[in-house]
Amino acid sequence: MSYHLFVRLTSRDPEAFPDPGDRLYDWELVDASGDSQLNGAGDTQQAIEDELARNNLDQVRLVGLVPGDDVLLCYADIPAKQSRFIRQALPYAVEEQLAQDVDSMHLALGGHTEHGYRVAAIDHSRMAAWHTLFNGWDGARLAAIFPEPALLPLGDHDWCLCLDGNRVLALSREGQWFSMAVENLPVLAQTLAVPDEEQVSSTVSIRLIGMDAALAEHDANVRDLEGNDRLAIQKEATSVPPLRLMAQSWLAHHGDVIDLCQGSFSSRGGSRSQWRVWRPAAVIAAVWFIAQVGVEVGMGYYHQQQADRLNQQAMAIYRDAFPQDRRATPNNVRRILKGQFRQAEQSSGGTAFLPLLRQAGAEYDQLGGAEALHFGSLNYSRQRGELVIELRASNYDRMSQLRSALAQKGLSADIGSVVNEDDGTRGRLTVSGG
Predict the structure, then answer these.
(1) Among residues 320, 347, 374, which one ends one of the domains?
(2) I want to staple 75 with a disulfide (CB 3.0 to 4.6 A). Which of 38, 116, 157, 198 is the partner?
(3) Residue 86: which H helix or E strand, with range?
(4) Cα separation of 34 and 245, whole Å?
(5) Poorest-confidence range of 1-10, 243-252, 331-340?
(6) CA end-to-end span of the chain, whole Å?
(7) For residue 323, what are the domain limits?
(8) Cα-flanking dihedrals φ and ψ of residue 191, to 5°?
């Protein structure tokens, strides 16, 4: 029988503890039907490996879960249909949606939707840290890495929210995901209750899942969610822990989730695995040999021939993907591609609401959450691509810290309408894509 080992790091930061013995994991071992066989919380890698060995389990498929805040969902509107053309055009299609250089990002391709291809973007060094963390376990081989909110059981609802300790994991029907502090549920309710500028008012269906103890502990925040007439809440009390819930959901609907293990982080194994280990060395040796021969026969001529050949290949790929375009030449094809995709992005309505909210929420948590700042109302203008947040803090410096943190992420952030009162300072933070 096949088994999957779902693992997530309790500290949520793969670089927080350099010593592997200090890293603690929550884990769930499930069989093909989704039934839990073994599980644990706050265990070391060694303890989990020992448990697998005691049960004579080997080559278990390990599925690593990473925080949703580490991964951004983008859409790539690419007219090409062949996989290799899509992957070649992918960086140009999403670079305007990213706050950092696309060359420093790892891009994982998902399925096609009415908005284009779904793309998960994560900082390359961060992905490398997660991949190292989950790879090379005794008794388990890395099969996939997912952003954890993407595994929630959405069903037929517009949103799925899952209480996970003091956090809420969220997934929308459009595929957007994020996590936030539980105390921000009232703000989320207020935001979801406001219809988009291009839509008529309608009810938003929300599936709210939590264990009995979690629902009781956060009852006040949950009641704020239920008290909004425009939100149709289906509250589900369960005895299933969040990690097991996500594992069972993925086993039932795993085709809809983007696996981050692609490209240089691919986890595919098989009969050619030994060759794949040695293939980079063989390629390097072959390149070295050819380079040495090239020195003897004339480097200048050789490199000119190589450049001409690569230019011809690039133009052939471009014309296969865009047969109607006759403007492109080897000298301007990159500029034309960037211009086309930038125009497509601008016509799609600017920076999306959820990425702005996700980034603002992440920086809010880094500054101490409700202990340092309090979010009031939220307003989003799709036409301007701006998110406006009413803030209250003990002093102006707290607001300024949040603005600076957002600016360091490549966003445009401004504070206005500042009023000093006896109990603190309030103001309005405007965030856009920069």
Answers:
(1) 347
(2) 116
(3) helix 83-94
(4) 9
(5) 331-340
(6) 51
(7) 281-347
(8) -70, -45
For the record, the structure tokens of 377 come out as 């109302």
> What is the spatial distance between Cα 256 and Cα 5, in angstroms, rounded to a whole number?
19
Q: Are strands 60-66 and 3-9 parallel, antiparallel or unpaired?
A: parallel
Counting the structural domains of the chain, the total is 2
pTM (2 d.p.): 0.67
* In-domain check, residue 161: no
Contact 139, 52 (CB under 8 A): yes
Angstrom distance (rounded) from CA 344 to CA 334: 16
Domain-ending residue, one of 311, 329, 347: 347
Task: Specify the residue for token string 């890293």.
Answer: 23
The average pLDDT across 297-326 equals 69
Residue 58 phi, psi dihedral angles, 5° rounding:
-140, 150
Name, of 139-143, 180-184, 187-191, 356-360, the range with top average pLDDT. 139-143
Residue, of 124 and 201, whose pLDDT is higher? 124
3-state percent helix, strand, coil for the chain, nearest multiple of 5: 45, 30, 30
- Give the mean model confidence (pLDDT) for residues 112-136: 93
User: Is the same domain home to 429 and 365?
Assistant: yes
User: What residue spans of 257-332 are helical by DSSP H?
Assistant: 273-297, 299-321
The answer to whether the beta carbons of residues 148 and 65 sit under 8 Å apart is yes
Tokens of 135: 């790879």
Please, what's the b/e burial string for 217-226 (b: 16 or more CB within 10 A of its CB; e: otherwise)? bbeebbeebe
| Cβ-Cβ contacts under 8 Å for 65 (sequence gap 6 or more) | 6, 7, 8, 145, 146, 147, 148, 151, 243, 246
Q: Print burial letters for 382-402: b (CB count within 10 Å at least 16), e (below 16).
A: eeebbbbbbbbbeeeebbebb
pLDDT in tens, 133-162: 999 999 999 999 999 999 999 989 999 999
Signed CA dihedral, 341, 159, 71, 185: sign only:
positive
Task: Answer with the residue of higher pLDDT: 284 or 290.
Answer: 290
What lies within 8 Å, CB to CB, of 411 at 6+ separation is 99, 356, 359, 431, 432, 433, 434
Q: Which two tokens stand for residue 270?
A: 């098989």
Residue 250's alpha-carbon distances to 32, 34, 84, 372, in angstroms, are 11, 9, 27, 37
Contact 239, 22 (CB under 8 A): no
Same domain, 366 and 396: yes
The enclosing H or E element of 324 equals none
Tokens of residue 127, six digits: 């992905």
